[in-house]
Amino acid sequence: MKRVTIVEIAERAGVSIGAVSYALNGRPGVSEETRRRIMEIADEIGWRPSLAARSLSGSRAHGVGLVLARPADTLGVEPFFMRFISGLERELSGQRIALLLQVVEDHRAAVEAIRLWWAERRIDGLVVTDMYAQDVRIPVIEELRIPAVLAGRPRPDTRLGAVWTDDTAAVDASVDYLVALGHRRIARVAGLPGLDHTRVRIAAFRAAVLRHGLGEPDVVETDYTAEEGGRATRALLSRRGRPTAILYDNDVMAVAALTVAQEMGLSVPGELSILAGDDSQLCVLVRPALTALSRDIQAYGLQTARVLLDLIDGRAPRSYQGNTARLTVRGSTAAAPDG
Amino acid sequence: MKRVTIVEIAERAGVSIGAVSYALNGRPGVSEETRRRIMEIADEIGWRPSLAARSLSGSRAHGVGLVLARPADTLGVEPFFMRFISGLERELSGQRIALLLQVVEDHRAAVEAIRLWWAERRIDGLVVTDMYAQDVRIPVIEELRIPAVLAGRPRPDTRLGAVWTDDTAAVDASVDYLVALGHRRIARVAGLPGLDHTRVRIAAFRAAVLRHGLGEPDVVETDYTAEEGGRATRALLSRRGRPTAILYDNDVMAVAALTVAQEMGLSVPGELSILAGDDSQLCVLVRPALTALSRDIQAYGLQTARVLLDLIDGRAPRSYQGNTARLTVRGSTAAAPDG
DNA sequence: CTGAAAGCGCTTACAG
DNA sequence: CTGAAAGCGCTTACAG
To answer: Which residues belong to any copy of the HTH lacI-type domain (chains A, B) (predicted)?
Structure first.
């Protein structure tokens, strides 16, 4: 059970521990020959750096934090997060950087978690998701000067990095596609109105509807859950002049909408076209399979990790724009009924 | 940016750093008065222990690891993991223990991750999910003497703790329920055959079918994905003497089955009863809503964390049995067509 | 009850 | 190119 340390390596190699440290870290100060011998010994006895010791003397914690502020049930059903995490991991684990995960109720708790992690020197940086237009986490992160990257639109007034995709273009493409199918009454079931990207998408939707001269844009806000998605759908479909096509802000709500339409005796896509704002296996699970906006979430996570690692290494904050979501056409969209 | 350390507290309080350490950790060696004064100062200047320092001198890393060895896509769609993680978190974060998460492809990679974490002294213990009957992780964990708890059935031949629920009883209840509805041809679409709990459930299913005198038990093995679940369903429903009821090993496959049945023109539950082995929002999303085995996954995660923390504290390995899954009856099960 | 000191396992100037 | 030493921020016997 005795821990293998550089002292043992130094003894076996007949050099000082300083030399061992230099050799192991690839820094100048030892001859190539010595370095090789030291590396061999380290390998042979299965040495691994103690992160505690390394963190204490160097100043890196070798960890980054991700705080998810959502109810566990919502997190569970939306496939987004696990895939995103998995993408982050792919980049981080290669560099022996741990991902610390915390699931909390709200932003207040998130701020608390961030403060503690930082004070304890557990993390070198932070990944921030689910940005709010007014986000209490940002001033705290700025004040503590924590390297951080937003999974979302850049905030030029901050020192934070950002990895984002062009939601406006994706919404535009969706509306254009539906209009080309002859739809004139298109509605949007949006997610949480406080969220940054929800707002961007709503704005894009409004602009697209107006641009096509389709009258007053019809948007219902929800909390992203199946319940509210279903309820919003029921409300929209009960109106006179009900929409012939609805855009949903995620996959879960679109699936719920399909159920509601079927219960109301409306055929999809015959009488109603449904378009999901996120793609996942869920969309393929149901009938008709759902037309959806797809993007590579794992790649998104991976890029986010890269931008964060650069920041931690002291490079200037970057904004990386990933690929715009593509429209994957399946069975839930078709020509407008009266078209 | 200067870090607040116990040195500063000691100076302000006019005592040694040793006294500060004792006071802050609630150990004897300082008077109550001194202790209170020290705590106040610490609070006032916002001191937080450096985990690196604490880990280096004490021998705790204050972290536990969870390695998920599954393809990211599967992980994403099954709501189980996020809820489980969220339950783990609830217990861990209260004790300032970090959850380190790693998502890998297979058990070989999982073993590698475990070895590294342990060698680097990043973790004090491990949560192990998705146990295989023959599981390469176990001998490694035993050899390294890592405190670990299985989210699954106890292994009496090991020093590992375990948190589990009685799958046999849950399967029994499901079969009994279907038999009471008059079903005589009941099949099971199982998950990955290598998994421990898959085997237990298959065995329980076989035993129940035989006990009820329903003839040769009909089991199809899959990989838990919607694709294979759908394919298995199609195969089962294409046979002469097709089943009138099918038990699925998770929620995702049951939803896929619903789609397949509808495509084949079979009414659910009129001609086919579907029972999902896991419950989640997915089951409520579809029509008919799926009858399912429900359990409190968050509580399961929380209990798992507790058993692990006990182990880490040096207590003897415990096996904790959680509540057996309850049958939540919804619209996908009904009396057998010929009953 | 309290203080002084060693030690955890590294990194990093600073001399040779 | 190499060695000896200080230091990171704590904990913990060991003396007083």
So the answer is: 4-58
CA-based nearest distance B236→chain A, Å: 18
Q: Residue B275: which CATH number?
A: 3.40.50.2300
Question: Nearest 5 degrees, angle CA A170-CA A176-CA A181?
Answer: 130
Q: Strand C closer than 7 Å to the CB of B19?
A: yes
**B119 closest CB neighbour out of A48, A55, A80:** A48
A307: alpha, beta or left? (left if phi > 0; alpha if psi -120 to 50): alpha
Structure tokens at A255: 């699936």
Q: Residue A75: name the closest of B226, B280, B97, B126 by CA.
A: B280
Q: Both B161 and B301 in a single domain?
A: yes
Residue B249 Rama label (left phi>0; alpha psi -120 to 50; beta): alpha
The model's confidence at residue B28, banded by pLDDT at 50, 70 and 90, is confident
Q: Based on the fold, state whether residues B172 and B283 are members of the same structural domain.
A: yes
pLDDT digits (tens, 9 = 90+) for B327-336: 999 999 999 9
B90: nearest Cα among A171, A102, A298: A102
In the three-class reduction of DSSP (H, G, I as helix; E, B as strand; rest coil), residue A228 is classed as helix
Domain annotation covers residue B268: yes
Scan residues 31-50 of chain A and list those with Cβ within 7 Å of strand D.
Answer: 31-32, 34
Verify that A130 and A144 share a domain, yes or no: yes
Domain with A220, as residue range(s), is 167-294
Q: Which of A121, A24, A284 lies closest to B229, judged by CA? A: A284
Residues B150 and B88 in one domain: yes
Cα separation, A228 vs A2, whole angstroms: 57
Residue A219 lies in a domain: yes
In the sheet that holds A291-294, the strands lie side by side as A218-221, A186-190, A245-248, A273-276, A291-294, A326-328
Q: Domain for residue B332, yes or no?
A: no
**Proximity of residue B22 CB to strand D below 7 A:** yes
Instruction: Tell me what percent of chain A is helix, strand and coil, each rounded to the nearest 5.
Output: 45, 15, 40
Strand, coil or helix: what is A30?
coil
pLDDT attached to residue A2: 63
- How sure is the predictor about B172, in pLDDT bands with cuts at 50, 70 and 90? very high
For nucleotide D13, give the residue with the nearest CA to its C1'.
B18
Considering the domain architecture, whether residues A210 and A232 belong to the same structural domain is answered as yes
Per mean pLDDT, which range of A166-170, B268-272, B315-319 is the poorest? B315-319
- Does residue B49 belong to the interface with chain A, where contact is any CB pair within 8 Å? yes
B101 and B156 together in one domain: yes
- Determine the 3-state secondary structure of B102 from DSSP: strand
- Contact by Cβ (8 Å): B193, B199: yes
- Rounded to whole angstroms, the distance from the CA of residue A92 to the C1' of nucleotide D11 is 31
Q: How far is CA B180 from CA B175, B332, B339, in A?
A: 8, 15, 10
User: Does the beta-carbon distance from B52 to A121 stay under 8 Å?
Assistant: yes
The first and second tokens of residue A108, run together, are: 């207040």
Residue B240 forms part of a structural domain: yes
Q: Is B288 exposed, middle or buried (0-12, 13-18, 19+ CB in 10 A)?
A: middle
Instruction: Give B-chain residues touching A82 at CB under 8 angstroms.
Output: 72, 75-76, 81-82, 103
- Touching check for B46 and chain A: CB below 8 Å? yes
